[in-house]
Amino acid sequence: MDYGTPLKTSGEMVSITINGQALEVAAGNSIMAAALMHGIDIPKLCATDNLDAYGSCRVCLVEVDGMRGYPASCTTLVSAGMVIRTESEALIRLRKGMLQLYLSDFPAGDIPDGWSEFHRTLQQVGVTDHPYSVSKTHLDAPVDESNPYFLFDPAKCIVCNRCVRACEEIQGTFALTIDGRGFDSKVVAGQDQGFFESNYVSCGACVQTCPTQALVEKSLFPEGYQRG
Ligand code: SF4
Ligand code: FES
What we know:
By secondary structure, this protein is an alpha+beta fold. It has helices at 31-37, 89-103, 117-125, 162-169, 205-209; strands spanning 13-18, 21-26, 63-64, 83-85, 150-152, 176-179, 186-189, 215-217.
């Protein structure tokens, strides 16, 4: 079970309502974690409970009475009296639209057989394809196989920053960064040297946390890696 954000189980308790259900949760928890503690699984991509919330993918949106727009449930903490909805027509439309955008720049052949967190989230939200005609994609970007243990397929990277955060927060090194902006933003090791030449230490924290298998163990592909 991945609660999306680090759990708080003690301290002051607050009363909230999620989808009409009155709940008591420890203050300091995100809406996402509070919901899952009570069996409500809000779709997510960039959140995982061994890293601090980051709020980049916009898949985990919810509605909160008195709050404008659609706050991200991973970066919004519960507070006393909060009234939250995790399912509505607008939320379903927004989540599907966001996942379809990710899908429009993701190897199509990988969708039916994929087994990553990304695929689980697609299934959870009910997204199997997208309506976009996209002229510019990362689908031709070369795979970095320079590291003996892992490879990096940029076509599967959704730039969620989990690998960079795992490197910093779990391993305490700063070997990975996100370089560039918008469409050109990408994960780089060291000074964009490739994963083998850089000061990347192959600890595996980034591979373990990657939700799309853009970073993945080579041993899973004994016949050699083929992009889907
Ligand atoms: S390599 Fe994986 S973890 Fe890193 S930014 Fe891309 S999708 Fe996220
Ligand atoms: S999971 Fe909340 S913004 Fe990505």
